[in-house]
Each structure stands twice: as structure tokens, then as C-alpha cells.
């Protein structure tokens, strides 16, 4: 079964359930949780598909170059199922030039590459073959790279942290930063893996729910209470270890590589991470609009400048020139020679010795790689729809419904936490917690189609 839940800005619910029902006194546009609900099944993460808009690459089309993380263009290569980011559309990396048309489809596997038509592309991710059925002319499914295991019950969800019998055990909840952070009030600096300043005691499953809500790594110490803290113990939370190892996506994929299916999006992403782990400078550009030849003239022939940054190193750029006269050179472009590593938003060319004049210096723009460029496919292809694919077996239905029941209503319910007397008598057509299925649904019983809608 397939169903589209949203066509606007995607607000993804935490939990989704397939609900099927039969004829009741309510209309087809409402849902009665008592009269209509015959069968319910949780939809696991593996059966959710995040859909984003995309432009398939076409020849003789002009594509816009990268300006910022909110101003860019990506294309989809239908031959290798790979998405590419356009870094620039002319080989001199000039923002003031009217670029030509793209005539060569990007097809390389990793890193920046400039093609014969002057376009420079960067591969971002590959659509997983298990989701090819969701590809349309202008949409693609965005791969999920996490290794979270599916679960059928909430007890199974919390078992990795709590153990099979410790879901409701009480203890100390230890939360850790997933990334380097700065406290917005105190200014205190935390590094990835540092313990947060909360002292929390709760049931184990509540601890994990809190960690998910705050986007923190978590450990749980069962059996501890506030009385476990001795008067001579100091620190933000003296019961918890001060640090915790926070594995990156690369670490997680590497550890699981023997279980990763060959040809999958996860295998390709691990390939990208292994071949491009030191994120440095992604692209540079130059704007010569409005400058006179005198302002574009320097004394050096194709000088190479280092890129300066408080933390980064190793990146170099070449100022492209052509000779005019005996000792003068006219600037006509720029080129990134080496990317380096460790660069942030403060990266600028090092113009020690005034190799280029101030006017030219101010016309150079340097862009470093976003830290999530290879770990978050949704960074440059935003999800706009959520589609679900649900498999329901005859045995699952027979367990709940021993007799033959005709199913005439089908819906996907989001975060159904209102129960018993708190639940509404009916969910209306526009209720966001229930989305009526909009596509054809077929449920099969042995040798018989029970219902089509």
C-alpha cells in the first residue's frame, strides 16, 4: 500500500499507523476510532519514504551555480541514480560571466570535477534501489542513512538502552552533546561527547524519549536515585561518566559494512565518506563586474594564495592571469587548487605581501563544505512529501480478525496518543492526525481480493 501524507512543508510525525475499517454510520470522509477501526499496524521507519523535488539533468540547459546553502541547484542523473550539486557553471569560476549551456552530464563518483562544458559538479548521494518505484519525472526518494533498527512494539524500541526487562526501571539519565556546542546563556563551551549539565532521574524509557527530544546521546544507570549522590561529590552530574564516545555516521556505517547491501545508498555514502573525509574548501568564485583593466592588473603571473582560517589549513587558490606588457598581468579568473581540511566560515585568502590589490581581494568568495554535506541527504534536497509502503500479511489480519471482514476504509494515523475518554468521537476530514488514503489499496486474502479502493 502506498499513500502520500503531505504535499507542502513536511512536518514528520513521530509515529504512523495503518488503520483499516469497515462500514459504519459515519461518512467516508470521517473516521470513527471505535466503529471503523478493525485492524491497526505500526508503520516502521524502513517503510517511510521521504520525497523531494529534483531536476533531472538535461542537455543544453543552463544550471545555476552555488551561492550559499539556501541558493543552489541540484540535478539527478537518471543513468546512475546519483544527485549532483552544481558548484559553478564556467571554468574560470566567474560570477559576472554569462555561462554557457550544460552539454555534459555529470557522472563521476566522488569529489569536485569540472567537465568540458565548464560546469563543476559535486556528487551528494545515490537513490537507493529499494526506493526506485517512488521516482517520478520531478521527484526522488531521499535515502535514509541511519542504522536504526525497526521495531514492532515500543518495548522493543527501548530495549537497546534499557534491556529486555528494564524498560520501566528507575535510574540516572545521562545526556551527552552530539556536536560541539556553546551555551547561549553562560557561554560555556562543550565538545562532542561532553556530559550535559542536567541531573535527571527517571524511568529508562522516559530517559530515551528525553534524549530524542533534545537530540542528545544517552546512557542510563539503573537503580540510582537522587540519594545516590554523596555530599562530597561535585560536578554537573557526578554519577555519570564525564564523556561518552559519539560515533559519526562514517563510524556507524563502517562498523556495519558487512551487513550493507552492495549497490545500496548506504554503500555509496560510505564510499564518499571514506574518499572525502577531510572537509575543506568546496568552491571559490570571483566577480570582476564593473572593474577597469587597471583594477584587474597585478604584477604576478598566476599567483597561488593560501586560504587562511583559525582552524583550517592546506587549501590553495590560483589567480588566473594573462600577460599584458613586460611585467603586468591581467586577472581573468580563479581556481581552487587544493581543498585542505578543517575550514569554517572565516576562511579568506591570505594576501600577505599584497599579491593582489584590495579591490580584487574583496571580489573573491570562499565557500567551505557544510559539515553535513555527506551525512545528511536532506541538506540540499528538502523533503516535501512523506510516502509510506505497508505490507500486511494474511496471518496478521487473521490474528486480529478470525472471520472474514470486508475492509472499506483505509487511513494512516499520525501520533495517536489520545486514548479512551480523551479520544474524539470522530476524526474529521481535515484532522491532521488522520490522513485518508488517496491511492488505490488492495488487500488480499487467499485466492480472493477482499476489497479494492
List keywords for this structure.
disordered C terminus, mainly beta, disordered N terminus, 4 domains, 453 residues, flat, 27 strands, five-stranded mixed β-sheet
Question: What do these coordinates show?
Answer:
This protein has 453 residues and is mainly beta. The protein folds into four domains: 2-43 and 390-452, no CATH class; 52-146 and 374-383, no CATH class; 154-247, no CATH class; 281-368, no CATH class. It is built from six helices and 27 strands. The chain has helices at 154-162, 204-214, 249-255, 265-275, 358-362, 394-400, and strands at 2-4, 16-21, 39-42, 48-53, 55-56, 74-77, 82-88, 113-114, 120-126, 139-142, 170-176, 181-182, 189-190, 200-203, 217-222, 281-286, 297-298, 304-308, 313-324, 328-341, 348-349, 364-368, 383-389, 409-414, 434-436, 442-445, 448-452. The protein has a five-stranded mixed beta sheet with strand order 5-6-7-9-8. Strands 17-20-19-18-21 form a five-stranded antiparallel beta sheet, with no helix packed on it. The protein is flat and about 95 Å long.
Amino acid at each position: 500500500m502506498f499513500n502520500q501524507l503531505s504535499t507542502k512543508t513536511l512536518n514528520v510525525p513521530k509515529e504512523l499507523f495503518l488503520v483499516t475499517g469497515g462500514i459504519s454510520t459515519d461518512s467516508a470522509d470521517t473516521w470513527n476510532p471505535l466503529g471503523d477501526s478493525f485492524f491497526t499496524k505500526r508503520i516502521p521507519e524502513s517503510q517511510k519514504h521521504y520525497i523531494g523535488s529534483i531536476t533531472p539533468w538535461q542537455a543544453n540547459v543552463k544550471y545555476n551555480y552555488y551561492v550559499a546553502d539556501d541558493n543552489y541547484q541540484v540535478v539527478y542523473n537518471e543513468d546512475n541514480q546519483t544527485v549532483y550539486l552544481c558548484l559553478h557553471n564556467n571554468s574560470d569560476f566567474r560570477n559576472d560571466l554569462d555561462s554557457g549551456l550544460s552539454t555534459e552530464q555529470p557522472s563521476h563518483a566522488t569529489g569536485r570535477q569540472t567537465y568540458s562544458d565548464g560546469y563543476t559538479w559535486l556528487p551528494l548521494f545515490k537513490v537507493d534501489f529499494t526506493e526506485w518505484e517512488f521516482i517520478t519525472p520531478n521527484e526522488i526518494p531521499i535515502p535514509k542513512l541511519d542504522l536504526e533498527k525497526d521495531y514492532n512494539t515500543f518495548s522493543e524500541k527501548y530495549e537497546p538502552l534499557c534491556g529486555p526487562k528494564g524498560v520501566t526501571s528507575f535510574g540516572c539519565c545521562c545526556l551527552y552533546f552530539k556536536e560541539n556546542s556553546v551555551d547561549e546563556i553562560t557561554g560555556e563551551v562543550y565538545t562532542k561527547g561532553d556530559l550535559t549539565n542536567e541531573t535527571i532521574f527517571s524511568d529508562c524509557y522516559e530517559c530515551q524519549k528525553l534524549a530524542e527530544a533534545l537530540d542528545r546521546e544517552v546512557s542510563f544507570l539503573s537503580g540510582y536515585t537522587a540519594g545516590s549522590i554523596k555530599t562530597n561529590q561535585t560536578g554537573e552530574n557526578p554519577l555519570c561518566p564525564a564523556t561518552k564516545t559519539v560515533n559519526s555516521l562514517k563510524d556507524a556505517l563502517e562498523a556495519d559494512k558487512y551487513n550493507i547491501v552492495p549497490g545500496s545508498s548506504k554503500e555509496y555514502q560510505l564510499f564518499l565518506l571514506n574518499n572525502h573525509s577531510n572537509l575543506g574548501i568546496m568552491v571559490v568564485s570571483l566577480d570582476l563586474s564593473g572593474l577597469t583593466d587597471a583594477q584587474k592588473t597585478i604584477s604576478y603571473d598566476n599567483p597561488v594564495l593560501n586560504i587562511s582560517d583559525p582552524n583550517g589549513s592546506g587549501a590553495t587558490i590560483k589567480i588566473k592571469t594573462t600577460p599584458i606588457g613586460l611585467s603586468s598581468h591581467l586577472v581573468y579568473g580563479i581556481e581552487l587548487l587544493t581543498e585542505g581540511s578543517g575550514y569554517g566560515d572565516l576562511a579568506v585568502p591570505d594576501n600577505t605581501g599584497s599579491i593582489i590589490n584590495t579591490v580584487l581581494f574583496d571580489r573573491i568568495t570562499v565557500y567551505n563544505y557544510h559539515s553535513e554535506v555527506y551525512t545528511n541527504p536532506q541538506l540540499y534536497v528538502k523533503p516535501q512529501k512523506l510516502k509510506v509502503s505497508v505490507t500486511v500479511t494474511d496471518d496478521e489480519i487473521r490474528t486480529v480478525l478470525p472471520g472474514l471482514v470486508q475492509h472499506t476504509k483505509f487511513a494512516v494515523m499520525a501520533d495517536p496518543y489520545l486514548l479512551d475518554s480523551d479520544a474524539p468521537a470522530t476524526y474529521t476530514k481535515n484532522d491532521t492526525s488522520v490522513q485518508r488514503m488517496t491511492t488505490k489499496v488492495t488487500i488480499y486474502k487467499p485466492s480472493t481480493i477482499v476489497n479494492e479502493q
